[in-house]
Specification:
The chain is α/β, with parallel strands linked by helices. 30% of the residues lie in helices and 18% in strands. The protein has six helices and eleven strands. A six-stranded mixed beta sheet has the order 6-10-5-9-7-8. Helix 1 links the parallel strand 1 and strand 2.
Length: 262
């Protein structure tokens, strides 16, 4: 898994290690400019990078949008405000590093004499009082210095962080990681290993178990019904009969009362 500076994949990696303890997830940090190349050259199965990417080759799932900030010295007038606009820095020199992650031709303000090679180099120039720098907030935090601060700036592009991978290489493991970044639980039907899905045999066994119990109970229910029917017949006929149909205790042809002798 490749990731660009400023992106913190720790939470997703922790969940991966809990769900896939037998499949190690190797992290490789790459520059924002080299993220697509890492995927094209199979240096990584997927990458956490900043959009845009070539959507004819790569699939991408946007994860979140970053706040854009302007980095300045702590004693600069920009530091006195909670939030600034593009108009507030129109007369300031704004540095534009070659690895800029914001989607624009050039930042607002006055251009510097030359473009720094990296964001880290631009931070050094800001600390030297050469100019200001506009970056995603995560990069401002990554390159934090005690003598610098940053403020939110409006009316500028925002950076989107996404999970991206070659569309033709959507493997089961990539699907598993997609499920993690999308917040699916381990019991979700997608983004889960095949061996975690309930088997058909287990489903059939659960479905058959209650039915089997009912079949076992049916003979007992039949016996009870037979006993009840016998009791009803006995109540209607005045008790059980001997062969010939005479009541118990009576003489043949009698009324059931004893005769007196003359």
């Amino acid at each position: 898994m490749a990731y660009v500076p400023g992106v913190t994949p720790g939470k997703w990696v922790r969940i991966w290690n809990e769900r896939q303890p037998d499949v190690p997830l190797v992290l490789t940090q790459v520059s924002a400019a080299d993220a697509e190349a890492a995927l094209r050259e199979h240096g990584a199965d997927a990458a956490l990078l900043r959009l845009p990417v070539d959507r004819t080759v790569f699939s991408a799932i946007p994860l979140y949008t970053e706040t854009t900030v302007v980095v300045c010295p702590k004693d600069h007038m920009v530091a006195a405000a909670d939030e600034v606009t593009v108009g507030d820095i129109a007369d300031e020199v704004v540095l534009h590093p070659l690895d800029d992650t914001l989607d624009w031709e050039r930042p607002p303000g006055q251009p510097a004499f030359e473009r720094p090679a990296t964001t880290a180099d631009a931070i050094e120039l800001v600390a030297a009082g050469i100019g200001l720098l506009i970056v995603p907030q995560s990069l401002a935090r990554l390159h934090h210095r005690k003598d610098l601060t940053y403020r939110t700036i409006t009316d500028t592009p925002q950076s989107q962080v996404a999970l991206s991978w070659p569309e033709e290489a959507t493997t089961d493991l990539v699907e598993d990681f997609i499920g993690i970044v999308r917040g699916r639980t381990v019991n979700s039907s997608r983004g889960r290993r095949p061996d975690e899905k309930p088997s058909k045999d287990a489903k059939a066994e659960r479905a058959a178990k209650p039915k089997g119990q009912q079949q076992k109970q049916q003979p007992r229910q039949g016996q009870k019904q037979g006993q009840k029917a016998g009791q009803k017949r006995q109540a209607a006929g005045g008790g059980s009969r001997r062969a010939g149909g005479a009541p118990k205790g009576s003489r043949s042809g009698g009324t059931g009362k004893p005769r007196r002798r003359g």
